[in-house]
Amino acid sequence: SQALRARLEELIPQKAARLQTLKKEYGSHPVQTTTIAQVVGGMRGMKAMLWEGSELDANEGIRFHGLNLEECAEKLPKARNVDGSEGVMLPEAMLWLIMTGEIPTTEQVEGLAKDLAAQAALPEYTLKLLEGGLPSSLHPMTQLSIAVASLNHDSKFAQAYEKGVNKKELWKYAYEDSITLLAKLPAIAAGVYKNAYGKGLGARKCAELAQEGGDWTQPLALALSGGEERKGWADCLRLYLALHGDHEGGNVSAHTSHLVGSALADPFLSYSAALNGLAGPLHGLAAQEVLTFVKTMHDALGADASDTDIEGYLWDVLNSGRVIPGYGHGVLRKTDPRFTALAKFGSSSPTLSSDPLFRLVQRLQAIATPVLQKHGKTANPFPNVDSQSGACMQHFGLEEAPMYTVVFGVSRALGCLSQGVWSRGLGLPIERPKSVSLRVLEEGVKGA
Ligand code: FCX
């Protein structure tokens, strides 16, 4: 989008100057003390990375440049439904906010959607992968990651680097590739669905629909529903895509894209790497796991299961050394506001609110939290967003649980790619933290 790029061109030098001043004047100022518990405990709470798009508060949840989700939902431009009614906030409006820190106008968002649509078509080499080149039995996340990596074939960033473009200019190419990738992600996801399950309209049709006009999400909603207009589905997807857009920098997918991008790998390679992390069951794959978990529980206990039956089922899971998917979080210590936003959306939908699995997820909350509290291990016994998303998507006909992480992968690109542009714009260096052996840690505490 030319307008978005032009705005970044104004903003990046300002922030880069602030960063230089801070580095020069306060470079040796300590941010915090690092403890042994942090070094051996997955770096929890260790402040070690610059991330601009959003910040996560343990109790309040995510804020995008200071705005919480309710404020975003209220202030960001919204979709227009087919019947003319106002829909939910648009993910491309969220992209604008994440990238610039500013609320876009409706006109700016429409312009951005148009620019994305113009680049929606996939190159033949990517289409080949998604039209039988990759085995249908390959996990959809692996297919997504391979298809995204394949776009590196035409990376403007990689070409610019090879030509020796000045480092200060690299962000412009990172931006170009990022917009290209965002434009193509819906068609890739539609292609993965068709290749894996033989369902939906596929990549070519999804890109064609995008070029007919409309917002970023509508073609994907239609491609996943096989062309059927399902009332509420496009809005559900839009909300999902906007909510999952960014969750600050330390989560596995964001951190991975940041790390790989710091080696000046192009945005396609950086984001493909991020997707491989998102495919882990403790991260994005939890969305798939939750639905399988809830469905299995529903089948095992029957529709009339009592609270005691459900409680017993949860204890069996915990006592067999497994986790309750969709509960807990590395940072959050309260119910995830993204969970609450999807629950609110579902409860206001006349059909979704009566869906048995959606209802079971709502009911589970009151039972699982006290069980996890009694279990006593989990720092956060409350539901995270993955608890809710699958139940919503299956209701609208997307029943293949492995696809939930793919949809998550479409969304998370908003934040990861935006930061990639800023990282290059701010001239951040290659990441190279120091590792230490157990011996060194032990020697360090001798006599302490
Ligand atoms: N069920 C059972 N036990 C849990 C648990 C859960 N939902 N969540 C945490 N625990 C356990 C941990 O396994 C750990 O046990 P251990 O001491 O025997 O190793 C202990 O509680 C302490 O972990 P905690 O500090 O609370 O959590 P971490 O920061 O280590 O891990 C995740 C956070 C999210 C990985 C963890 O809560 C989990 O495995 N949850 C289930 C999977 C899930 O829903 N993931 C999605 C998270 C997120 F929303 C996303 O990234 O998409």
Automatic annotation (TrEMBL):
Gene3D superfamilies: Citrate Synthase, domain 1 (1.10.580.10), Cytochrome P450-Terp, domain 2 (1.10.230.10). The keyword Transferase applies. SUPFAM superfamilies: Citrate synthase. It comes from the Eukaryota. Coiled coil: none annotated. The keyword Glycoprotein does not apply. GO terms for cellular component: mitochondrial matrix. Keywords: Mitochondrion, Transferase, Transit peptide. It is found in: Mitochondrion. GO terms for biological process: carbohydrate metabolic process; tricarboxylic acid cycle. GO terms for molecular function: acyltransferase activity, acyl groups converted into alkyl on transfer. Pfam families: Citrate_synt. Belongs to the citrate synthase family. This is Citrate synthase.
